[in-house]
Amino acid sequence: MLQLFFTIAFSAAPLTLYIPPIRCLTMFVETMEEMGMEGRVYSRRVFPRARIAWSRLLDCFFSSSPPPPRRP
Question: What DSSP element (H or E) covers 28?
Answer without folding.
Answer: helix 22-62
